[in-house]
Amino acid sequence: TLAVVGIGDDGSARYSFHTAATSARFVEDQGPLPERTTAVALGTLGMVLEPGASVYEAVLRREAERGRFIALDPNIRADLIEDPDAYRKRFASWLPSVSLLKLSVDDARWLAPGEDPLDALRRWQAAGPSGVVLTRGSDGLTALSGSGQVIEVDSVPSTVFDTIGAGDTVQAALLAWLYWHDALDVSALHRLEAPQWERALRFAASAAAITVSRPGAEPPYSSEME
């Protein structure tokens, strides 16, 4: 899939996608993932474009049943979703299999039109995820812990070149932090308390601040985070 990006005066990115005659959607289910697999991260166009979307959905459900940690970032690209209501129902059907749900405030508003994003997060968490993270751009990050506690952190100041890859960086940084702290596990994530969530969110916010400070999707190496 070819993504074409237009950059606004404030560094915000607008995307258009070219999917015709491309191979990205054609993926085969190779069966159960290797035993050494720790987590499965899914989202964006992979969960939209058929026939691949149905394959990834099958992987999501099967690996969740096997006890895998499932991270989902819907990263809504509305122009490519032909039936919004059908997608919203499908999204809801994934939640019982999801361990960590990460989405933007724009995603939340599209998935739950007319509903307060925090109310939507609580409803989605009740359906399955042990943790839910909402990215709010320059306003920072919000998380719902396994106990339903709301944790918020501010964004990290940065001179923005463009916002390409900011959300993906947050997701990657969260997974890295959880892995390094032995919390990339469904039950461990559920037990995370507010101070741990704050550290995880600050780490993710710091990583995103580096990504937006330079052109394109170039997330930081761990050495840069030190």
Give an overview in words.
- This protein has 226 residues and is of the alpha/beta class.
- It is built from 8 helices and 8 strands; from the N terminus they run E-E-E-H-E-H-E-H-H-E-E-E-H-H-H-H.
- The chain has helices at residues 52-65, 84-94, 105-111, 117-126, 166-180, 186-191, 194-212, 222-225; strands at residues 2-7, 13-18, 39-43, 69-73, 100-104, 131-135, 141-144, 150-153.
- It has a 6-stranded mixed sheet with strand order 3-4-5-6-7-8, with helices on both faces. Strands 1-2 form a two-stranded antiparallel sheet.
- Helix 5 crosses helix 7 (194-212).
- The longest helix is centred in the last third of the chain and has 19 residues, at 194-212.
- It is globular.
- 33% of the residues are buried.
- The mean pLDDT is 93.
Order of helices and strands: EEEHEHEHHEEEHHHH
Order of strands, widest sheet? 3-4-5-6-7-8
Q: Could you give the distance between the termini?
A: 34 Å
Number of DSSP helical runs:
8
- Average pLDDT taken over every residue: 93
Silhouette: globular
Low-confidence stretches: none
Largest sheet: 6 strands, mixed
Strand content: 15-25%
Structural class: alpha/beta
Helix content: 25-40%
Taking all Cα atoms into account, the compactness measure Rg is: 17 Å
DSSP E strands, number: 8
Topology:
Blueprint lengths: L1 E6 L5 E6 L20 E5 L8 H14 L3 E5 L10 H11 L5 E5 H7 L5 H10 L4 E5 L5 E4 L5 E4 L12 H15 L5 H6 L2 H19 L9 H4 L1
Parallel strand pairs: 3-4, 4-5, 5-6
Antiparallel strand pairs: 1-2, 6-7, 7-8
Helix pairs in contact: 5-7
